Amino acid sequence: MKLNLYLTQEKELKIQQDLILRAKNTNIINCYIYDEDDFYVNITGMTVYFMVKEQPSDDDDNAKIDIEITDFSDSQNGQVDIELSDTDTEDLEGNYVYEIKIKDTENKIYTIAEGNICFQRSISGI
C-alpha cells in the first residue's frame, strides 16, 4: 500500500485517507512525504508517529497501536515504511481511526494523514 503525504498544510491538501488492512497479518504502508511544491522532503533526523485508536477521543495510553519511527527506508527521498506485524494486528478486527504525524528537526509536529482504518479478517483465519 502506498500513501503520498504532504509535510505542509499550506495547500488545501486532503489528509483524510481511509485504509483497509488485514488483521493477523504483517502490513506495510509505504509513505512518501512531499513538500508544497511536490518535491520529496528529506526526513533525515525527523520522527514519524503512527497511532490507531478505537475512537479519536480515546486516551493515547489506550491506543491499539502506537509506533514511533526514526529509521527510514529512504530518508533523503521522503520514504518511510510503517510496518505493522501480525502481533500488532492480531487483536484488531473491524473499524478504528488512525493518524500519522511527523516531527521535524525543529520539533514542529505536522499531522500528515488521518482517517478510518479497517482491519479485515483473512479468509483462511490464519
Write up this protein:
The protein is mainly beta and 126 residues long. It has a single domain (2-8, 15-120), classed as Immunoglobulin-like (Sandwich). 3% of the residues lie in helices and 45% in strands. The chain is built from 1 helix and 8 strands; from the N terminus they run ββββββαββ. The chain has one helix at 86-89, and strands spanning 2-6, 19-22, 27-34, 47-53, 65-69, 79-84, 94-103, 109-120. The strands form 2 sheets. Strands 2-8-7-4-5 form a 5-stranded mixed sheet, with no helix packed on it. A hairpin with a 5-residue loop joins β7 and β8. The longest helix is centred in the last third of the chain and has 4 residues, at 86-89. The radius of gyration is 15 Å and the shape is globular. It starts with a strand and ends in a 6-residue tail after the last strand.
Quick synopsis:
Helices cover 3% and strands 45% of the residues. By secondary structure, it is mainly beta.
How many domains comprise the coordinates? Answer: 1
Unreliable stretches (pLDDT < 50, length at least 5) are: none
Give helix and strand order, one letter per element, not per position.
EEEEEEHEE
Helix content: under 10%
Shape: globular
Overall CATH architecture: Sandwich
Indicate the structural class: mainly beta
The portion of residues forming beta strands comes to: over 45%
Do you know the CATH topology? Immunoglobulin-like
Cα distance spanning the termini: 21 Å
Largest sheet: 5 strands, mixed
Q: How many E-type strands?
A: 8
CATH C-level name: Mainly Beta
